[in-house]
Structure formats: structure tokens, C-alpha cells
Design goal:
By secondary structure, this protein is of the alpha/beta class. It has four helices and six strands.
């Protein structure tokens, strides 16, 4: 038994416990390699050219938009402009609506203000009817159009 203890003691004396630097160097090289590889895939951020509101541009006049017009398209195909029905629900050309929109656009041009139109289609309104109204807006020369579905703006 004494021999086994001696043998065990000799064996434990051969092992020196201490800080080993070689594994630490390996880990540092692996981490450095990782960052070198990843640096090539990072996208470079460019400077954003933004202009914040301030005092430097007070010479221009601010133009407020004209009164906003709401065109509603109901499920049955009825088209209303500010809650007034125009044309028959099956009339594809929408001549009354187009004439009215042309007068509105001419009035906006005379006032030098852009005409704003909100196109509010019910959820079950046909796409064909929406395209008919868009064609009428195009014929009138109105370009500022906002779309909504139902009663909630998109």
C-alpha cells in the first residue's frame, strides 16, 4: 500500500499546474479570423442627405392644399363625390363625375393649389368600378389621389 501511495505521489509531482498560453493564442487567432472574415460582409453605411426644418428657407411661400374631395365607391357600384351620387351605377364612362372633376381641377389650378382627392372604396366594391373612377380622375388631370378601404385610411 505504501508503494501505491508513493507511486501516486510521484505521478502527481510530474504534473505541473499552471497557466498555458498556447490554447489562449489559438482562441485569439480563431476570433481574429472570424472578425476578419465578417468585416468583408458588413455593408458600409452612407451619409443620408436629409434636410431638417429650420430658419434658412423662409423665402418660399407655403402653399396649403385646396379642400379635399372624397369620392366613395359603394358595393352596388354607386359613385359619390362628397356624399352626392353621380352617374348610374352601371355607367362605365362616368361623364357627370368627369365633368365635375375637371371643374374642380380647373379651380385648383386657378388658385395655384393642388387638388387632393381621397378615393374611398367599400370592401366589396368591384375593382372594375375603381378603375372606372381612376380613369375619370385621369381624364380630369387630377394626380394627387389617396386610397382608403371602408372607413379606415390605408
Amino acid at each position: 500500500m505504501h508503494a501505491q501511495a508513493m507511486k501516486h505521489r510521484i505521478h502527481s509531482d510530474d504534473i505541473t499546474i499552471g497557466f498555458q498560453i498556447a490554447p489562449m493564442i489559438d482562441v485569439v487567432f480563431v476570433i481574429m479570423l472570424f472578425f476578419m472574415v465578417m468585416a468583408g460582409t458588413v455593408k458600409v453605411e452612407r451619409e443620408l442627405k436629409t434636410k431638417l426644418p429650420g430658419q434658412d428657407d423662409l423665402t418660399q411661400l407655403v402653399k396649403f392644399p385646396a379642400e379635399e374631395i372624397t369620392i366613395a365607391i359603394l358595393e352596388d357600384g354607386t359613385v359619390t363625390l362628397n356624399e352626392e351620387a353621380f352617374d348610374a351605377p352601371k355607367d362605365k364612362a362616368l361623364p357627370m363625375l368627369t365633368r365635375t372633376l375637371r371643374r374642380v381641377e380647373a379651380s385648383s389650378m386657378r388658385q395655384n393649389q393642388p387638388g387632393l382627392v381621397t378615393l374611398q372604396a367599400e370592401e366589396q366594391a368591384s375593382y372594375e368600378r375603381i378603375v372606372d373612377v381612376l380613369n375619370s380622375l385621369h381624364q380630369a388631370g387630377i394626380q394627387n389621389v389617396t386610397f382608403t378601404v371602408g372607413n379606415d385610411p390605408l
